[in-house]
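Extended Data, record Gluconokinase
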Amino acid sequence: MQQVRTPHVVVVMGVAGTGKTTIGPLLAARLGVPYAEGDDFHPQANIAKMSAGTPLTDEDRWPWLDAIGRWVHDRRGLGGVVSSSALKRSYRDRLRAEAPGVVFVHLTGDRALIEDRMSHRQGHFMPTALLDSQFATLQPLEADEAGVSVDVSGDPGEITERAVAALQGLAQPSL
């Protein structure tokens, strides 16, 4: 499989269980850029809250989004892929404030498929009980936001190829 070089810095977004942690590294490899796992930017208090089945508040998310935004900013002009749910427009606006050229790949799918995938994964702190709150919070990308939506049906390779093809259709960011 051929690498596709891009100066885009991409945030792979979507509700829990859409495959951000699976697709993110595959997409980064296809683009020939580094990958950062968004969950690694969470403070321990956030992980403890989610592990207990408590949804995060916006106040909980701001430091996490700021840390991701700094990583994205530092990759400007070099390219990179990072995962982040980025469910609300205000969260994406916060990332864009730190890194104006960021591009979003919104992983989308049927709720039943996503719940099924979540129920089979192991070692993740996000319980399926929070999926409803994730869908309730989700504000899909708007027309003025740089990004693409990619369906998560199929295997990871197929999803990654759809994401690469969709990204290739975007204009290159201004450096």
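Summary. The mean pLDDT is 87.
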